[in-house]
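To fix ideas, we close by showing one paired sequence and structure record:
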Amino acid sequence: MYIWFTVLAGLALLSLSFIRTLFPYLGDDCAYILRSIKLGIRLTKYKRGKQFYSVLDCFLDAVKSHPNKIFVHFEGREYTYGEVDKQSNKVARALQTEARLKEGDAVALFLVNEPSFIWTWLGLAKLGCPAALLNVHIRSKSLLHCFSCCGAKVIIASEELQGAVEEVLPTLTEQGISVFLLSEACSTPGIKSLSDKISHASDQPMSRDLRANVTIRSTALYIYTSGTTGLPKAAVVTHERVWAASFIQAVCGITSEDIFYINLPLYHSAGFLIGMVGAIERGITIVLKRKFSASQFWDDCRKYNVTVIQYIGETMRYLCNTPRKDNERNHGVKLAIGNGARTDIWTEFLDRFGEIKVRELYAATEGNIGFINYTSKIGAVGRVNFVHRYFFPYTLIKFDTEKEEPVRNSEGLCIEAIAGETGLMVGRITQRSPFIGYAGNRQQTEKKRLRDVRKKGDLYFNTGDLLRFDEMNFVYFMDRVGDTFRWKGENVATSEVADILTLANSILEANVYGVKVEGHEGRIGMAAVTLKEKDFDCSHAYKQVVNYLPAYARPRFIRIQPCLEMTGTFKMKKVKLVEEGFDPAHIEDPLYFLDPEKKSYVPLTEEIYRAIGAREIKL
């Protein structure tokens, strides 16, 4: 009997070893699928419940179960779940009195990373008011556009952003917009201080009746994403989408004992939904940073016993560029969640800072399809599995990058890309995976809809991204198509930049695109331009882009051309320009470089080109 038992045990171990060899990611697949199914059941329960259970309700339950647990660490101060709850009650009551807010009223938040961002949003949620999260770097025309497209009648701004608000104040006043500043006092006519009203308000709980009509399909947020219009688009984020994004932490195996480090801006979906809202869903503690600091990063992680960090590709690169230290592996970080990690930087990051599990994501704020690389496969943004594809149907289709359109067969249907082939990622629009679109922008919403993909009459969401599936079912991000590129973790709309450039007194036309720079993530801005006269007014062009564009959107390189090459449908050609880059040794056209020290565009010499490649010039 003993012999038979030994033989069977040996066969079982041999079989297990064989399965692991044949299916090395089976364990990861099973764990991911099991977690996904559990979370899917939860979301279905929330959808079908008699009374809608929101993330706010989840927060209030956390307050009841652990009111004294620290929710937020910020610049040496601690805020418990109970304290944040009471502060949000005070915000809600102050806004009830001062702004006369009622359920459904949209409110724009023009706030930097600080705890007041969190409790102001919670206060609005208690009133049943959706929040529009404005990028704190936008100014002037973009700021007014972002504010107006969400239909808000109230804007709340951080004290340090008062100058940006004052720039557009005449227009806001003319439109009857209520403007509040998170300060104790404000002497500017047309801007009311809010902090003093909040401090005197009651912290008693708010009635649930104030948000009685909010459902899982109601708009919870407006989060802005760049597009081909040249101005940011307000992606409509429903409460269902908020829940789905909050589950990413759970899918990655984060528990209530973890401590999450947020150094990404809260106006982005990564910092707000995956980071902060995900922390509420898990009931964990977060460490909130005003902005990313490579020099303080690991010291913060050690100080606060951080176990989970967020990143974008640039974050990893900045950390890898810091001077080496003896204690750089001395930390408790076990998991990193983010997107945009380049393979070489990813490898270097692990070599330097230890075996941290990296969970690379692929998703879009407004999109209906996303992936998570839940394995340790370096370079992949996700993995194909049957459960994910059943609930969120998608396909990868052949795409003509020259014509910037899908390749179709004789029947007018799209052609599916095979394994190993780069294609356009599209997600089928269904009730389970909807595409809500952009607030106040039907034209751009329609542009993201793709019809007749697999069969006549079907409808898909066009991600605008080129991906590739390999033979092992891993997913790889290849490139973006259309009129946006990504730099410094921000999407840049090329036509917005072109509009600003053509206001310079010497520039007639501008074709804006992104080019790769060795050792950097994403693509940096470059523009091919034609001139009104023979001479390029370097100084005025510099002033134009600095005054009207955030740093990440400013074209660092200008290429002067006699004429801009167009397609048959009068679209500016970019593919060849992107490929040629900015090397003065291979380009005959005059090239210029944006030099912040000289406050002008200067001729791009081979010496400057070499210094950029050697990272002697900071971009």
Observations:
- The mean pLDDT is 92.
- The chain has three domains: 54-291, 386-477, 484-613.
- The longest strand covers residues 459-469.
